[in-house]
Each structure stands twice: as structure tokens, then as C-alpha cells.
Amino acid sequence: MARNLTPRIAGAALALLTILGQSCLAAQGDVSRGEVVAAQGSQKGAPACAQCHAFNGGSDASGAFPRVAGQSALYLSKQLRDYSSGTRSNSLMSQISRALSPQEIDDVAAYYAQEKATPFIPLRSGDPALLKRGEQLATVGDNSRQLQSCNNCHGPGGSGEAPAIPYLAGQYSQYIVFTLKEWKHGFRKSSAEAMGVVAQKMSDQDIAAVAVYFQQVRNAAPATGSTTTAAQPAPAQPVKRKQ
Q1: pLDDT tens digit string along 158-182?
Q2: Which of 55, 156, 169, 177 has its CA 20 to 30 A from that of 216?
Q3: pTM tops 0.90, yes or no
């Protein structure tokens, strides 16, 4: 069973937690000011975050934009700073992040961190065989590919390990696929020594499998091809996010 961190990834994860833990002492966001940024944008012209991520941080069912509600403030602020510095690149988010002041970044991160965005939008959970493979990778891993379980880092049921590691449970599968492929092909530089290594060991089928699995962890919609219209229980029990 591939449940233990490899020394390389364990060391990288520890270093990341240390850096982010130290940063947490310095970064303090104001929820009320962050609410204004989310609804109206920034003084330097960044558009309202709610246009893409929704006012409650749940985004939309398209999966083009990730859920940000309930992610830790430290994690969210780091992603925005990575976009601003070029460590993480996106034609839209890079420009938006550079139009936010450091304080506005902390404020809007604090705002979305305390949002719940529940109930989750019901989405079809995909092919049962793909779900089974995704559950294996998420909970056990795959020794043949030297892959530890996703939950080793991302917490039980993909609930996240605040403050540094985001939740995956309920995240849109399209977004998970997109960002894993960014790491796999070297386009995403943040966490290259940890997530970059993991993604490079995953086939495209593996990436699709974990993506559909984590999307349905908090989702009660029937699997694709199901003959019933009634909602079916997800194979993994929802785990309450750490705040």
C-alpha cells in the first residue's frame, strides 16, 4: 500500500508548511474589506472576484473556475501572490493579482476562507470504473507507479490540511484535471518538487479518475449511465472542512 510520503515529497511538504506557517503570522486579512473586493473589485482596476468565483466562492457548474470557498486564507493568499510574481501563470489571474495590493490579497483571501458555499451543486459523478480507480488513488495510492495516496497530504476524504494544503473534496473535476496537467507538463511552478513530481507519474486516465472521484465526494448526483434519477450516496463520506 502506497500510503507513506516519499522522503523527497515529505521534505518538500514540511518546508512548505514551515514557510506558510511563518507567513501566517504576518498576513492578516479583513473580511469586510475582502467582501468589497469580491463584490466590486480593487482600486487598481481588478474586476470583482464574484464574476468568476461567485460571491459565495462556489463558482459555477462549468468547472472552468475552481471553488475557493472555505480554502484557508493562507493558501488563497499564496496562490494570488504566486500569480502576481509569475511563479504561477494564468492569462487572467496573473493580471488580476497584479491589480490587487498585498492588503487586498489578504482581505479577499480572508473573505473567501470563511464562506461555505453550501449546498454543493449536484453534478454527475462519472463512469463507475473511473470512480473506482480514482478512489484507489485517493485512498491507497499505486505502488506500481510509486504514487502515494492523495489523502496522505490532502487529508481524510480530501478535506484539506490547513493552512498549506487545499481541500479537494467537492472541487470541480475539470479544474482538477487542468491544474494536474499544468504540473505534469511543467507549466505550474509552485510545488513543482511535490505536486509536480506526483503529476508526472500519473497517466491522463489517472488524472481523470482522481478528478471525478474528488468532485463526487461531496456530491450526491447519480453516476453517468445510471438508470435512476434519484440521488445516490457518494462512495466516501463527506468530511467537514477545517476552517
Answers
A1: 999 999 999 999 999 999 999 999 9
A2: 55
A3: no
